[in-house]
């Protein structure tokens, strides 16, 4: 457990927190005017190793060698020049700070952090963090790495959960959910859509699936896994044999066996480590998925509500009216896909660079 204190005066700025992995959707911008919930679970923090926010430099101003040293292997619109290593927490876990009104940024419905740190230490007025709660952004506080210090505190130092326990007791992430919108003259509203977390998870996984494909067709398992990935894979990769085979693998699952080229595997939510089989196959490429998404894919929710006439049978879940299903086919998150793909060395291959350029030019808009 740790608390974060002001590097200037030592004032405590957070409640005691334990470290977890940064969620895949941490940088996601979702929809238009959507009211997204809090990013981090209360009592936790995660370190974002990449720079975030201004100042920015355009790609033309950056030497390719510098970009590769930062782990970026393909052109992007601009790169952040801020200090990497911010600690991300839930807004409810911040203490001893005040808002800096003039640092409102270009926000629409809240704070977007565009003007830099907008929270100052109450004791010494040192800017220490950036609160983000604007529409279409996940709500979070980003503690500036050069303005705070992390101090260990007494408490229970529990070891990370074992994979078997996560597989048995881990919380599933439903594939679709109601999305809240900011209230207008008629009050607050919501609509049903694919889960933003699923769209971000698919964006990251799709980038890895393309690399794992080696430019060949890929076949994923049927059902929801196919709904999430197959349409995009068929559109972005060549058709016809031979097809590289992808399967869901992980704790509690049967051994993938021979003839498997790609493994869709969970990421440990505390450590960020990707699951690996006890006897790893050298040729099988592991594609990471957040644990909650992976759990739903390997064990979909049984007894989903279905339409029924007459008396409601005993084994049918009553939900009147039924929740609407999303009005469009699944689309991976464009920003997460691009953020992941440009950081994979394989993107230097001409065929992958072409996919990235088509995405930038908008020719793949119906997939994202």
Structural classification: alpha/beta
Q: Biggest β-sheet, characterized?
A: 7 strands, mixed
Strand order of the largest sheet: 2-3-6-10-9-8-7
Order of helices and strands: EEEEHEEEEEEEHEEHEHEEEHHH
Distance between the termini: 39 Å
Mean pLDDT: 89
**How much beta, percentage-wise?**
15-25%
Compute the CA-based radius of gyration.
22 Å
What is the β-strand count?
Answer: 17
Which range best describes the helical content: under 10%, 10-25%, 25-40%, 40-55%, 55-70% or over 70%?
Answer: 10-25%
Shape: globular
Write a brief caption for the model.
The protein has 368 residues and is α/β, with parallel strands linked by helices. It has helices at residues 64-69, 163-169, 196-213, 224-236, 291-298, 334-341, 350-360, and strands spanning 2-6, 18-19, 44-48, 56-58, 78-80, 86-89, 97-99, 119-121, 127-132, 140-143, 148-152, 176-184, 187-194, 218-219, 244-248, 262-267, 285-290.
Tell me about this structure.
With 368 residues, this protein is an alpha/beta fold. Helix content is 19%, strand content 21%. The chain has helices spanning 64-69, 163-169, 196-213, 224-236, 291-298, 334-341, 350-360; strands at residues 2-6, 18-19, 44-48, 56-58, 78-80, 86-89, 97-99, 119-121, 127-132, 140-143, 148-152, 176-184, 187-194, 218-219, 244-248, 262-267, 285-290. A seven-stranded mixed beta sheet has the order 2-3-6-10-9-8-7, with no helix packed on it. Strands 14-15-16-17 form a four-stranded parallel beta sheet. Strands 1-11 form a two-stranded antiparallel ribbon. α3 (196-213) crosses α4 (224-236) and α3 packs parallel to α6. The longest helix has 18 residues, at 196-213. It starts with a strand and ends in an 8-residue tail after the last helix.
